Amino acid sequence: MLDKALSYFLYLYGLLYQVFAPCLVPELLSANTVDHQQYLGKWYFKAAVSRREADIQKFKELDNMWFTIEEPVNDTLLLTGHMRIGDNCMKQTWTYNIRPERDDVELEGRPKRRTLLWSGKWANCPACIIFQEVEPPLNETDSEDSLSRYLLYGRQSDVDSELVKALQKNLACHGMSACVRPPQEKEFCT
Fold this sequence. Notes:
The structure is a single chain. The chain is of the alpha+beta class and 190 residues long. It is built from 2 helices and 9 strands. Strands 1-2-3-4-5-6-7-8 form an 8-stranded antiparallel beta barrel. The longest helix is centred in the N-terminal third of the chain and has 19 residues, at 2-20. The radius of gyration is 19 Å and the shape is globular. The N and C termini lie far apart (66 Å). Residues 5-18 have low confidence and may be disordered.
């Protein structure tokens, strides 16, 4: 009898908790209206979080990564990444186009990928930015996106574990628990 009463109590508590403390939702930074100038410059990769390990697998190879954001022409962002994988340095450039009718940025060569920009305040970091990369299901019958991951970037090179924990906590509420953080044991590439 006590077990049954406790079970009902916990069930009702869970329902009430969701009503009064639902999952937090980050602040969307609409790419077509946000001041791009404040996001130009140097950014350091802090963590990748997803529902599936496969979505963040490639980040497990990284020791560290940083990139710069430039706006060479209006409505175009150029990201130049510097990645350390083992003892090797790699440099890669991505071009994102800002479309006036869309909230996201479009990665050149990947028109089906949506890249949304979220405020770093969701990870208790006003000096951070969160990229969400989403690709639609591969088949019309699939109900889950073929890619869905959040990438946390900050202005400082050191990794504050509290920022990553805050992001993980907020995303766990949305069913995303796979996470990778770069160890940053080696020198950053130039």
